[in-house]
Amino acid sequence: MKGLFIMKVLIIGGVAAGTKTAAKLKREHRDWDVQILTKDREISYAGCGLPYYVGHVIEDRAELIVNSPESFAAQTGASVRTRTEVTAVNRVEKTVSAIDLESGDCSTYTYDKLVIATGARPFVPPVPGTGLKNVFLMRTPEDAYALRDAVDGGGIRRAVIVGGGFIGLEVAENLLARGVKVSVIDMADHILPGFDPEVQNHVENRLTDQGVMTFTGTRFEGIEGDGKVEKVLTSRRAFKADAAILSIGIRANTEFLADTGIALMPNRTVQVNAQMQTSDPDIFAVGDCACVVNALTHEPQWAPMGSAANLEGRLLARHLAGHEVAFRGVLGTGICQLPGFAAGHTGLTEAQAAAAGFDAVSVVCAVDDKAHYFPGAGAMLIKLVADRATRRVLGVQALGGYAVDKVVDIVVTALYLGATIDQLADMDLAYAPPFSTAIHPLDHAVNILMNKLDGTLETFTPAEYLAGAAEGYQVLDASMQPTIEGAVYVDLATVNGPLPEFPLDAKLMLVCAKGKRAYMLQNRLKFYGYTNTRVLEGGSLFNGTSY
User: Fold this and answer.
1) DSSP of 26-44
2) 512 is annotated as an active-site residue
3) Beta bridge partners of 399
4) What global pTM score does this model have?
5) Which helix (H) or strand (E) holds 291?
6) What angle do CA 443, 449, 452 make, to 5 degrees?
7) Rounded CA gap, 117 and 80, in Å?
8) In degrees, to the nearest 5, what angle opens at C-alpha 379 toward C-alphas 165 and 438?
9) 309: Cβ–Cβ under 8 A, 6 or more apart, which residues?
10) Closest among 500, 502, 522 to 510, alpha carbons compared
11) How far apart are CA 154 and CA 133, in angstroms?
12) Which residues of 494-527 are buried (b: 16+ CB within 10 A; e: fewer)?
């Protein structure tokens, strides 16, 4: 027995943050009264797995349910009331009012400590047609059940996904695998928030190659159809479709707090401190309804991810149990499986780093993801961002068919430890041909960025190239064999002095498939006196083959 005082902790909401808080609290204090109120029928489900149920990657719908209310209560000792919606909080009396959604009865619950874990809901814009048949969301298991049933029924051949974030693109991948023709529209300039524009542009091109058409800068204006979806209306044009999946974004479920005086952020998420405490010392918030901070900039950042929700719930439970803990903040880490490749990122983009006051420097490189001779080997594209003066690592973006998560997670560790790129160099990372290259892909990126900072590598970044920085430069093709139409081909093995056709001050942009041979050619040309060469970062693999 830990003591005579029995704390009463009332948790509003389940899924990830609420259930994690409850489970950890009951492990810390078995004698405490911990109760969850949730308006959902299920207390805990795998929201991130919903697109994969649609695609039959996950076959059994029962696999999406992490815990039933009964099993969770039996395993943890917490009590659970489902289909119970909290409508008001009385901070003075320390009570909440709730309605039973089945019977309509109203009840009052008391608390010593209150935890708000009400999550968020999909945003549905006020445009015509969103109530038609075959308009789908993707937030609850019921949403996934409905979409898969419709696809299995054979009535969906063309789908428009509104929103180019992770969930929308994961649904696109799974619908494409089911033979559905997919288009993605997004009002932003690019899909995939959290990546720099040149990386987003590369992803959009690769998705087009895979059969997913993306239409950015395109405003969603409504849906037309005779009882069901027939056209999706946009600022660009009308798209014929049998289904529309709305993945525009989410909004925090905090309306019931409007008159409580609890501090909310402009986006209506709950403002919390490092202990997940709100402006009321006895009320806490975790998960998708809470706004935490960025671990690098220490500015407020909303991180509606299941991973963050679990971390926050566990930390809050430890705090309530008496441990001295503080949430360090999030990095915005994310990863997404797309048709034929994955996209992952963490930390600050180059643009975000500059906006935060860093003197951001980056490198984009194309490297092997495992030994080139091993079956299944492919290329990984990495953009690594650091601060020029301190050489502190600030973020990474990675694309590839294998081990993208490893690269992202290594950089996550570096970011939380405040590491520099020099401290990431020469790390003894795991190597065997099925898993990596002898020099790990991330180590390659680190070495390239160090060369760039030290001046031994002079480049045009893809962003600089797209902006016209290479105007006036002659393109030299440094590939194994000639591959670039209209470029002068230079065989690296034959360069043993100045190039007869180019003076030493000639403006030369060196390009190969991945950038390695171009760097080697630059190194050799510098030795022979050339003063104005630039390597195109990422080579033709990242930038395309038209120069």
Assistant:
1) HHH-TTSEEEEE-SSS-SE
2) no
3) 343, 381
4) 0.93
5) strand 290-293
6) 145
7) 14
8) 125
9) 15, 16, 17, 20, 117, 286, 287, 288
10) 522
11) 15
12) ebeeebeebeeebebbbbbbbbbbbbbbbebbee
Q: Which helix (H) or strand (E) holds 412?
A: helix 404-417
d(C-alpha 346, C-alpha 295), whole Å: 11
Nearest CA to 11 out of 308, 313, 254 is that of: 313
Report the 10 Å Cβ neighbour count for 399. Answer: 24
With 0-12 / 13-18 / 19 or more C-beta atoms within 10 angstroms meaning exposed / middle / buried, residue 68 is middle
CB 321 within 8 A of CB 28: yes
Q: At what angle do helices 404-417 and 441-454 cross, to 10 degrees?
A: 50
Identity at 517, one-letter amino acid code: R
Whether residue 547 has pLDDT greater than 50: no
Spacing of C-alpha 445 from chain mean position: 21
Instruction: Tokens for 315, please give them.
Output: 């930390």
| Tally of CB atoms within 10 A around 310 | 18
pLDDT tens per residue across span 483-540? 998 899 999 999 999 999 999 999 999 999 999 999 999 999 999 999 999 999 999 9
Q: Which residues contact 417 (CB under 8 A, 6 or more apart)?
A: none
Tokens of 12: 């509003």
* Token pair for 52: 């994969």
DSSP annotation string for 392-408: BEEEEEEEESS-HHHHH
Angle at 170 between CA 168 and CA 175, to 5 degrees: 95
Please report which residue ranges of 440-527 form alpha helices under DSSP H: 441-454, 462-466, 516-527
Radius of gyration (C-alpha) of the chain in whole angstroms: 27
Question: Where in 297-378 does DSSP place strands (E)?
Answer: 300-301, 334-338, 341-347, 360-368
Residue 511 token pair? 């390009």
DSSP class of 380? E
DSSP string over 150-165:
HHHTT--SEEEEE--S
Q: Are 531 and 382 in contact (CB under 8 A)?
A: no
In order, the DSSP letters of 90-155 are ETTTTEEEEEETTT--EEEEE-SEEEE---EEE---S-TTTTSBTEE--SSHHHHHHHHHHHHTT-
374 vs 178: CA distance, rounded Å: 30
In three-state secondary structure terms, 313 is helix
Q: Report the distance separating Cα 11 and Cα 24, nearest Å.
A: 13
Specify whether the CB–CB gap between 291 and 270 falls below 8 A: yes
pLDDT in tens, 171-217: 999 999 999 999 999 999 999 999 999 999 999 999 999 999 999 99
Look at the block and give the residue holding tokens 């060196």: 510
- C-beta of residue 45 within 8 angstroms of C-beta of residue 141: yes
